[in-house]
Write a structure and sequence with these properties.
The chain is α/β, with parallel strands linked by helices. It has 23 helices and 14 strands. The strands form two sheets. An eight-stranded parallel β-barrel has the order 7-8-9-10-11-12-13-14. The structure holds 4-O-methyl-alpha-D-glucopyranuronic acid (GCV). 4-O-methyl-alpha-D-glucopyranuronic acid binds next to loops.
């Protein structure tokens, strides 16, 4: 091969347009192909007038300029003052002239500090569009929203969009280690290049901030909850400061995880006892040092006395003592403490699902005002389906923050296509009955149920340094969807999928409709082929990839899948009803009754709450064994349908992303069959029954499946 040809091929591979498409996420700004729509936009946008002069205003202007140029195919004039009609006027409330303000004064009363207004107005009898907010970050959110209207080909002829985020803290939790490995990360290494920071600012930091701001995410916890105290040393704080400076104009605050034993490890103290005056003082001084560098530092996220992490209990203190001591340290600077409730212990003989509630619920009302308790969506650990965590609705005097997992630790890593907003929506819509019917988890999280002012939602990030950010092109939708639901927890997952597809791939309805359908069904498919009917935590241990229902030899009982499914000759499932561990009693009476009673317990949660016989009759008349086997088969069939839908999408999108997803779906299909065969062969030992008609026969033995090992599975 000649050198020239080699260079040419290399360039072709490295800079192929499609690879850049993968990188550009939902901010593709593709040229609009519908002529009528393009015509409307060209008529409606003749110029841009930017009234602000902050860094954020410049970002808004540049984003509009590049977005419009790409989508419309020609440059839009940037004007220094309002001349003529059909201008886009962007600026915060204080920058608007009084005659513009007059048009929208009452709208400002309807938005909060981060909200925005996009409005068609008449100014001196000339039509204009104004994008505004109370400050420049609100304007930036408005700009992204406006661009999304164009990306999704909506009309802009008579605009009146008034919107504000419903939740204050909308943060990503990066489980990123300082050596750049990512715990439960399946998209390469950490974005944060600590070695080159603070002097080298990778373009990815900026693009990460853009993507987050475009969906309204306003915070990022840079480090793993299994924390390393080194991040709090000056050497690292300098690097954190550099990142904070990049993110600030995008409205994004930086947070860190605080290792509870840091005063010993990096502070030279003999103890980390929260009641020790020197310890409290150490944290106060540390907070002062951080805020001197980063005046808008968000605060700390803490995993304490959980899975071996140090915490106040090491000193005979409790979570309230620990959280409040840290809260005092950051309070003078407006910081918050996000204290996690993910606790369980191998020394507690209680059902693991009950332990977090048992430990935290009695603390209701005891935390300082700037503490928010971060609770996972379910009581075990980010399973394909879990009933909502009983702590939602059980601590009315405490701000409670939702923790979702965007990375797919238990849902096929970044290999399986699973559209998570369906899962998020299901949890948010669950009724806690805290204040009677309609007390949904969403209302707990957005504070509207109890008039709570400090509100938050966290997503464990699925982002890494893979070219496409998330490993699977469709996992980008989970990042996007998390952000959209963090902004408004009442949005519909289907609407979000529609938006995302249009912004990421195409507006062609022949593409959108079947692919949206595929996304919506993907979440139920993964449940069916992994953990149907309320089964949970039967993934292989440690890395959690693939099936491992047989694992029973780990030192901690609650780390063994057998602990969760309890399959025996008599049946299967975890009895958490009154006749079992009585975990159902942790819910409000109305919910407790529903879950406790076999008649009313939703079948999707059956084996979560009940141990039932293999002959138990399901609502459709099938026995539990047959029904379960058929669910596993259904999951496999659903993946096959996903493949069929995708294969028809080829002509609508770029070849590279098409091929990527096609290959990934093929692996998913193979692995769905693996799940089905391994689980059914294993459970069949107990049911002693034949597979029902309609379920394909396994092609390997149980011993074969048990022998599979994955020593280098990522994220572990
Ligand atoms: C960061 C699960 C995961 C752990 C994770 C933990 C947590 O147990 O497997 O990797 O640790 O949750 O949320 O703290």
């Amino acid at each position: 091969m000649t050198l020239l040809r080699f260079v040419y091929l290399f360039l072709l591979i490295s800079f192929s347009a499609s690879a850049q498409k993968d990188y550009r996420l939902w901010l593709q700004y593709d040229k609009i192909t519908n002529l009528q729509v393009t015509q409307e936009y060209k008529m409606g946008i003749k110029g841009i007038v930017s009234l602000g002069n902050s860094e954020t205003s410049t970002i808004s202007l540049r984003e509009l300029e590049s977005g419009l140029t790409n989508m419309l195919g020609n440059k839009i004039e940037i004007k220094s003052k309002i001349e003529g009609e059909n201008n886009l006027i962007i600026g915060s409330q204080s920058s608007l002239s009084s005659d513009i303000q007059k048009n929208i004064l009452s709208d400002f009363k309807r938005i909060n500090n981060e909200g925005f207004i996009i409005k068609s107005i008449s100014l001196k009898n000339k039509k204009q569009i104004v994008i505004t907010g109370k400050n420049d970050v609100g304007v930036l959110y408005g700009v992204y929203n406006f661009l999304r209207l164009l990306q999704t080909n909506k009309s802009i002829s008579n605009l009146n969009v008034i919107d504000s985020p419903k939740i204050n803290l909308r943060v990503l939790n990066h489980w990123d280690n300082l050596d750049r490995t990512v715990e439960r990360g399946y998209a390469g290494f950490s974005l944060w290049n600590w070695q080159k920071l603070p002097d080298f600012i990778d373009q990815r930091y900026i693009d990460y901030a853009r993507a987050n701001a475009s969906v309204g995410i306003n915070g990022t916890v840079l480090t793993n909850v299994n924390a390393n105290a080194l991040i709090l040393t000056p050497q690292y704080l300098e690097k954190v400061e550099a990142l904070a400076n990049v993110f600030r104009p995008y409205g994004i605050k930086v947070y860190l995880t605080a290792r509870f034993s840091a005063p010993i490890e990096i502070g030279g103290l003999k103890t980390a006892d929260p009641k020790d005056a020197a310890v409290a003082n150490w944290w106060k001084e540390k907070a002062k040092e951080i805020y001197k560098r980063i005046p808008d530092f968000g605060g700390f996220l803490v995993k304490a006395n959980s899975e071996g992490q140090p915490g106040p209990q090491n000193y005979g203190r409790d979570h309230v003592d620990g959280a409040n001591m840290l809260a005092d340290a950051v309070a003078p600077f407006g910081g918050v403490i996000m204290w996690r409730a993910f606790v369980y212990s191998e020394h507690d003989a209680n059902d693991r699902a009950k332990q977090a509630y048992a430990e935290f619920q009695p603390y209701d009302g005891k935390f300082k005002a700037n503490v928010i308790v971060q609770v996972k969506n379910g009581a075990i650990d980010f399973q394909p389906r879990e009933p909502f965590h009983p702590l939602f609705g059980a601590m009315p005097k405490t701000p409670i923050m939702m923790e979702f997992q965007v990375t797919q630790e238990y849902l096929g890593f970044s290999t399986h296509l699973v559209y998570l907003p369906k899962l998020f929506q299901e949890v948010l819509e669950s009724d806690t009955y805290q204040k009677g019917k309609g007390s949904t988890v969403a209302k707990v999280v957005d504070g509207s149920l109890t008039n709570t002012k400090l509100t938050g939602i966290a997503g464990v990030s699925n982002i890494g340094n893979d070219l496409n950010w998330t490993g699977h092109p469709f996992a980008q939708a989970n990042w996007y969807g998390f952000g959209r639901l963090a902004w408004n927890p009442y949005l519909d997952a289907e609407v979000i999928a529609d938006e995302w597809l249009r912004c990421t791939f195409s507006n062609n309805k022949n593409f959108i409709n079947p692919i949206k359908n595929m996304m919506i069904k993907s979440r139920e498919a993964v449940i069916n082929y992994m953990t149907p009917l309320g089964l949970h935590h039967i993934m292989d241990t440690g890395h959690h990839y693939g099936p491992g229902p047989w694992v029973s030899d780990l030192s901690r009982p609650e780390w063994n899948p057998t602990y969760y499914h309890k399959a025996d000759k008599n049946g299967i499932g975890f009895d958490r009803s009154k006749t079992g561990t009585n975990a159902t009693a942790q819910y409000a009476t109305q919910v407790e009754k529903i879950f406790d009673n076999l008649e009313t317990c939703p079948e999707q949660d059956l084996l979560w709450f009940h141990h039932v016989s293999w002959d138990y009759k399901l609502k459709n008349g099938q026995t539990l064994w047959s029904g379960m086997a058929l669910k596993y088969q259904e999951g496999v069939n659903q993946v096959q349908e996903m493949q069929n839908s995708w294969n028809k999408a080829e002509k609508y999108i770029d070849a590279e992303r098409f091929k990527e997803v096609q290959m990934l779906l093929q692996i998913q299909y193979k692995e769905a069959k693996w799940w089905r065969d391994a689980c059914l062969l294993y459970f069949q030992q107990y049911s002693g029954k034949e597979l029902p008609v309609g379920v394909e026969k396994p092609t390997e033995t149980l011993e074969y499946f048990k022998s599979l090992k994955f020593p280098f599975a990522p994220g572990n």
